[in-house]
Amino acid sequence: MSRVMWDRSSKATVVFNSAVRVAPVLAMGLVLQACSSSGSATSTYAALAPSEQLASNTSSLGALQRSQRIQNSRIRSEQFDYGSIYAAMVDEGNQIPAFDYTRMNRKYLRQRVNYYGPEKAGTIIVDARRRHLYLVERGGKAMRYGIAVGKEGYGWTGNSILQWKQTWPTWTPPKEMIERKPELAKYAEGLKGDPNNPLGARAMYLFKNGKDTLYRIHGTNKPYSIGKAASSGCFRMVNQDVIDLYSRVGNRVAVQVRPEIQASLIEREDSR
Q1: Which of 234, 245, 253, 261 is catalytic?
Q2: Checking phi first, is residue 55 left (phi over 0); if not, alpha (psi -120 to 50) or beta?
Q3: Which residues pair with 208 in a beta bridge?
Q4: Closest to 255 in 3D by CA, of 146, 175, 156
Q5: φ and ψ at 25, to 5 degrees?
Q6: By C-alpha distance, which of 137, 205, 123 is closest to 166?
Q7: Which residue of 6, 54, 148, 159 pairs with 230 in a disulfide if CB–CB is 3.0 to 4.6 A?
Q8: Ramachandran region, residue 105 (left: φ > 0; alpha: ψ -120 to 50; beta: rest)
């Protein structure tokens, strides 16, 4: 009997450990509930009087129920239906294939996280080392997306303004890129936007002091490059994610590109 109950307890613990951020007090409550149902669990403790036992059980049950309600509310507000988010879609007549999110490290999937920085809502922050892009929201939250950072992106940090954005943008490689890769000369006049375009479904152009920095936040037709150091490009995103970001921001958006975000300002990755 104890073997069966231990298996059930272990299974419950594993299930909740794999869920989104179960509060430690809740996890402890579940383990204690399972252990206390075996006859030996309280054998080393002094027995409680019936009234004390009832009061203790009632108090513990009430605390556990409150913790469960809070945690369930948090889980509902944080969960995303990734099957729908990354499903195939038609956008402005262009077919975007489904993205198999199960092949991606979860930390690079779109999710809402705690953010403790001073920036005002609407600010975009790029963490180049961790390969995350944050859109700061109200109430100490941020929408976080996974990105790939190309060599060009690693070479520049600082503040800029998202001053111009395009749907299904034309890609025109800069002459410096053509000099490095002469085979791109055929695109010197521009490659029209379509699913094969390396800028993907959206591009957001970063300016500084009114001048184009030549850095972009854009989509990609290579979604599994997200979370990696890309061979070229600036800050690329899964097409479904860049469409979502594009829909949430206007023009004249502050963008801060940093080597990395101070650890105390962001949620620990091992807590998700």
Answers
A1: 234
A2: alpha
A3: 211
A4: 156
A5: -65, -35
A6: 205
A7: 148
A8: beta
Q: Of 8 and 245, which is predicted with more confidence? A: 245
Rounded to an integer, what is the distance from CA 37 to the centroid of its chain?
39
| Pair type for strands 253-258 and 124-127 | parallel
Give bridge partners of residue 194 from the DSSP assignment: none
Decide: pTM greater than 0.70: no
> Which pLDDT does position 143 carry in this prediction?
98
Residues in the chain: 272
Alpha helices by DSSP H, listed for the chain, are 2-18, 24-36, 50-78, 82-85, 151-154, 175-180, 239-248
**Residue 234 is a catalytic residue:** yes
State yes or no: is 35 an active-site residue: no
Scanning 101-199, the segments in alpha helix (DSSP H) are 151-154, 175-180
Summarised one tens digit per residue, pLDDT across range 101-138 is: 999 999 999 999 999 999 999 999 999 999 999 999 99
The active-site residue out of 141, 144, 218, 236 is: 218
- Do residues 143 and 154 make contact, with C-beta atoms less than 8 angstroms apart? no
Residue 75: which residues within 8 A CB-CB, separation 6 or more? 19, 20, 21
The one-letter amino acid at 220: T
Kindly tell me the sign of the dihedral angle through the C-alpha atoms of 144, 146, 150, 155. Answer: positive
CA dist 43 and 88 (Å) reads 58
